[in-house]
Amino acid sequence: MLIGDTKILWRDFLSLWEEFLWNLPHERMKQLSKVYREIYRERWEKNKQRLSDGVNRVFTPEELERFFSVIDDERFYMMYSLQLYLALRIGEVVGLKLENLDLDRESVLIYERKTRRVVEKKIPKQFIPILYDYILRWKEKIMLSGGYLFPRDKGEGHITYNFARTKFYRYLKRAGLVKIYGYSKNGKPLYVLGTHSLRRTGITMMAKAFNGNVFLLRVFSGHKTIKSLEKYVYITDKETVWSAVDNVFSRFSSKKEQIKGLIQKMKFINNGVTNIQDHHNILYGPMGTISGEDGYNR
Questions:
Q1: pLDDT over threshold 80, residue 87
Q2: Which of 50, 159, 43, 39 minimizes the C-alpha distance to 97?
Q3: What is the mean pLDDT of residues 52-67?
Q4: What is the CATH number of the domain that holds 160?
Q5: How many domains, in total, are found in the chain?
């Protein structure tokens, strides 16, 4: 009976709450929505953990070389290359068309399905000739497919999202790069490297190129917030971090020997030198005897 009463009370509460919300002024609704999001995030999302948390899902340079070396279909080689260099999602790259390319600006227009935005991405200059050669070799099938850069084997249309993923894992297995970090609730293996790893790797590479400038990196990746960008960057190279610190403060390196000299001189001072004349001689050399305009020695 208690359970039934609870259900009735909950239903009545929802009914009253809905009526209350409908009559709430816009500003009050915004305030309430903000409070709701904060409470929800604090209670349910703050301590939420995923199996992939802490797992490095980025290709190493050696793994990238192994992966691309086993690809035997030029369409997939170009597809995965564009995904890497432009940090694209696999669903964004499979449907690219010739009309998306801007040859003068050396860029491509991308429709981001996740954000429902059209963004312009710069194509690396070194990749432009390779892309042009590919288009000329595949021009017949590209035109037959309706202008898609990655046409199907036969007829119109482009390589599908699912087929691109299937081929990716086949190449991954052929390269010996299949690694599992866990299993889903249905017992399905969860792979360390997936198609999204190419996007993660591209963003991580650009993070190093931008010297950690997260504002430039956010523009490149297309993320709305820096917080959502954090999980895409995986840098654990201590030497890289230390080298960056040295580079930032390199203008102070010329003072290093002078500081060492001062430290050494301070050791002499601490060993019992108390006379003002001796202090000056140790730090700056012997006091001079050049007379100033007032007649005093300097």
A1: yes
A2: 159
A3: 83
A4: 1.10.443.10
A5: 2
